[in-house]
Amino acid sequence: MSHPPGRPNDGSLPPGATARSAEAAPMNAAAAARSRSGLGARALLHVVIIVALLLVPVLFRQQEFLLGLFVKMFLGVTVLMGFLIILGFSKQFSLGQVAIYGIGAYIAANLTTNLGIGFFPALLVSGLVAGVIGGLIAIPGARFVGPWLALVTFAFAEIVRILMARLKPLTGGSVGFRNIPRPEIFGYRFSGEADYYFLFLALALFAYLVTLRFRHSPYGRIALAIGDNPDIAASLGVNVFRQRIFAFFVGSVLAGIAGAAFAGYTTYISPESFGLAHTIQYLTMLVVGGLESIPGALLAVVFFTFSHNQLMKWHPWDLILDGFIILLFMNLLPRGIGGLITDLRQRWALRRGAGTKEQR
Amino acid sequence: MSALLEVRDVHVHFGGVRAVDGVSFDVQEGTISGLIGPNGSGKTSTFNLITGFYSAKAGAITFGGEPIIGRAPHEIARRGIVRTFQNVALQPDRTVLENVMLGMYCNRPSMWRDLFDTRRARRDEERALEILEFCGLFELRAALSRNVPIGLRHTAELARALAASPRLLLLDEPWAGLNSAESSALVRTVRRIRDSKVTVLVVEHNMKVIMEICDRITVLDAGRKIADGTPAEVRADPAVIRSYLGTAGH
Predict the structure, then answer these.
(1) With 90 as the cut, is the pLDDT of residue A352 above it?
(2) CB contact under 8 A, B138 and A3
(3) Which end of chain B is more exposed for a tag (fewer CB within 10 A), N or C?
(4) What is the ipTM of this complex?
């Protein structure tokens, strides 16, 4: 990296700035200590949750239904993390997330059933192809913003749905694609819910880690800035067009992988599973989760997976109750679960800050 | 010696309105230059031209000897021209520190490495804190931008622009709405920026400040340049007195 003469590079600017004022230094140390203890608590929380999730299939091995519910939840997490990157972070109002997820499912179904490729290589290929397709949508999409992008991606989702029903040799038409082989690893063929439980837990963890790293890297800050105001980002040297496409690519890879795993789980897919209604469900989860909050989105998936399951008993009233719950959420928590988490954290930090001041 | 920035006969038209109508001026390296004029005289439009937010109908702009007209805003920023906005454009729901860190990704080589190397983020944060301290905003680092006092918001934006390591910094009315203490603090900051070898071009209505800090001033009126020179020359120019100082007060 070459700097033109006179252009300050790292460290040389601003001069004298390194001499931190005396009062600022202890404050900074205190802030560092606080964030370090916060880091410890966070790591502990992660370990506890993961251990608990690993114990679930051991403790409830016989309860296939419960494990199936967890599988549904992990699947939701994987798709929603991708949606979070596209819509939540970079505010690209896409309605195509489930269509891309469906594309992943059909690609994997074709690869494993017709070409005899193994499940895991097919998972990888489906993810990448879905990512590329997502990136391609983002190219015209990056010229449109807000409601216009929603329209473009809505049209895309409809086209995909119609193609699924019409391209019979590849999709089985509207009756669906049957007899997709179950995943196999080192000669062991998946059978019970517990097997799938671990597969989908691994996928959800992968999606979570990708999203977490994305969010806290320059990519995430840039995506959020583009969402806030693309002119700001461009004025600071960000190639807004490219970063929008990249966010779309990453989010679509996660959707594609989720779709491929779904095909291997149900062994039967049809266009019905990939309609717009499903995208709206994910959209609802994002909004209730706080739009750009990772923990908020996770809690929203957990909540809606289990609430849908409870409400199902009262069908068809469940749909009305579902709408009522969303209304309630939006009234009580307009900034979603993520907003609540931020507020609680801030209050906690303030109380701690006040405590240290008194000690001094 | 050729100037760092050369603007030659540029035009911006909106339908029949000639917002910028054949403006030419130079900005010399290492100076603080001013661009002044009554409301609607084309100052911000000129900024938008230089930074690529508007495309010019005709004319030429060169930066460090290289033509930059027709380039996208991010390409111009990467060449070293970074701006602030007239209507302060911070990310309201992010902290001041997060806002400044956004500036550090201008010209970042192999950004994908950041996904694996977390030490890079720590170094970024250190440097962003240094810049905040340089601008006198260290205490506000953890505040959300929406909670930053109005008088300091433009300074926060300036800190973000500095994070992008500019060679030329364009400031659009940074003194608007500042009280006198904030105003003189910003004067000191801008001078220190100039002393650290960053050239500054500023649009401003506050005549007292402009006359105090600028090495050279270009005066626009109705999209045309009417005067150009040192503060003393500009102040004495009859065309300036007639069209600007004469009507807008002293």
Answers:
(1) no
(2) no
(3) N
(4) 0.91
